[in-house]
Predict the 3D structure of the following.
Amino acid sequence: MEIAKVNQGIDLKDYNDVWIIGELIDGKVHPVTIELIGEGKKLAEKINKKLNVVIVGHGVKGITERLLHFGVDKVLYIEHELLKDFNTEGYAITISDLIKERKPEIVLLGATSIGRDIGPRIAAKVGTGLTADCTKLEIDETDGKLLQTRPAFGGNLMATIICPNNRPQMSTVRPGVMAKAVHVDYAGGEIEVINPKISKDDLRVKLIDKIVSGKKRVNLIEAKVVVSGGRGLKEASGFRLIQELAEALGGEVGSSRAAVDAGWIESPHQVGQTGTTVRPDLYVACGISGAIQHQAGMHESKYIIAINKDKNAPIFEICDFGIVGDLYEIVPAMIEAINEKHFLEI
Ligand SMILES: Cc1cc2nc3c(=O)[nH]c(=O)nc-3n(C[C@H](O)[C@H](O)[C@H](O)COP(=O)(O)OP(=O)(O)OC[C@H]3O[C@@H](n4cnc5c(N)ncnc54)[C@H](O)[C@@H]3O)c2cc1C
């Protein structure tokens, strides 16, 4: 295989440290970066290595300084005016050059649009493998290798993948799965500014314009409350009721894939294995059976309330409070009760 050939004869002992490839959106740190720092710290401690975060951009030194409050050892800030906006080739070239030079042991990226775009390109450039969409990362106590676990075969089994002969060991991790690193007052660590050699000729993709969608962004990952509707709604207009309950609870609207496939709601609302992973304080599942692929995206919610007219629906096996009955009777009663403030605060 080509990759094996590229890395034939590498000495695994030359590789050190855990790297997080950080992500910025509209000048702010993407939440997945803080989640990866939390997870990366645990892995780095287990293998007795340092934790570094890579940030690519231009004029964002202030942001890199803020990252030092999350317990990282070093921020490697790749700074260049051509990298002010995200650019597939610019990011992939500069990050992979730095990996080749510094040789990290583990590299983690968010399984976001950016991470999914540059992750495989970087892996190919440095001659290693990549495990996409991991939901669990551990260190093998016997040999210190990274155990990268992700759902396989439609979520019916969890596959643990290792990268025994190539370095770095690379994974993308789904947003919302790992716990965030804790912010501390003390800013430890240091910032190293790296000025890459890169020219306009290296970048075939040109940013012509940015068009911001007029629609309100769905923010399921950050939501404290998510109210989701499924096929049990029977029709698109059922989501008006879900929206009303979500508003009464101050939350966001989620959905099962069946509701998205039926065209009742747009895909950014989908919760589950091929949708978003959420871990709110409260998840309310209305007319959702609780298929394993749906559970994969919400089972870590603090409290789960399920409303379903089938008492044998699998969702009742994982919920904290289950209501057997017709959602079209129960949800309006809940909205009324909340609006009359008869509900206890969670
Ligand atoms: C590779 C793969 C990836 C997938 N990824 C996802 C994913 O990310 N997210 C996801 O959700 N699914 C995913 N699925 C699909 C998943 O397997 C299920 O098909 C889907 O979750 C079912 O959606 P549902 O619960 O809304 O519908 P159903 O399974 O049809 O359940 C509808 C429920 O509504 C109840 N009901 C009906 N009427 C009422 C009423 N009036 N009041 C109360 N309850 C009522 C029924 O009793 C039933 O339990 C994936 C599948 C595959 C193969």
Remarks:
- The first strand starts at residue 16 and ends at 21.
- The chain has ten helices and 17 strands.
- The longest helix spans residues 31-46.
